């Protein structure tokens, strides 16, 4: 990468409300991710890399961001036989990512905890995807369990296995907090600023509602990266978070 394409170092100040906002880089290429980050500037400090970007050069890009003082959330939702998950997590830990997701199945979570041992990587368990509602769970064969009930059950298993945090819809955050206690993280996707399109998310709230419901970090992707002024949207969300926490 040329010097002109380098991202300026931007360490995250302790207690900075920007650190509560995780910006999802849901774009198809590293070039587009760099362009989005350049437009956001110092309004963003924490970025999520999911399937789309991860398989298009995103792992090396994650190293680049980490080297520039950014935090990186690898949203890979690992789920496989125990040995495969453990070794995959061990590789991610060496990369220097801050968060990594796995699906909240006991064998998978147990392997992930073993794989991250001795590192600062935090494992987040995905309970029920925010694009699912009760009807989707019926179709998947989980009936008569509701989304809220399944989230609570999996959160309890994650707590008992030593998982660092839970990914759940903000609408379930209060219940999850009662299950996992005050020391584990709650990370909520499905966040939509007031007036924005919900897209394919079904259990959505605004940034302020997410924080009030108990989320530690909010994941926002399309409302920022697809905006005509992504920096302005990111700054507005950070202000909303700061106002709630004030």
Brief digest:
Helix content is 43%, strand content 15%. The protein is α/β, with parallel strands linked by helices.
Description of the structure:
By secondary structure, the protein is α/β, with parallel strands linked by helices. It has a single domain (16-245), classed as Alpha-Beta Barrel (TIM Barrel), CATH 3.20.20. The chain contains ten helices and eight strands. It has helices at residues 30-40, 51-67, 82-95, 106-115, 134-139, 147-161, 173-180, 207-212, 222-225, 230-245, and strands at residues 21-24, 46-49, 71-78, 99-103, 122-126, 165-167, 185-188, 217-220. The chain has an eight-stranded parallel β-barrel, surrounded by six helices. Strand 1 (21-24), helix 1 and strand 2 (46-49) form a beta-alpha-beta unit. Helix 6 (147-161) packs parallel to helix 7 (173-180). The longest helix is centred in the first third of the chain and has 17 residues, at 51-67. The protein starts with 20 loop residues before the first strand and ends with a helix. The model is unreliable at 1-14 (pLDDT under 50).
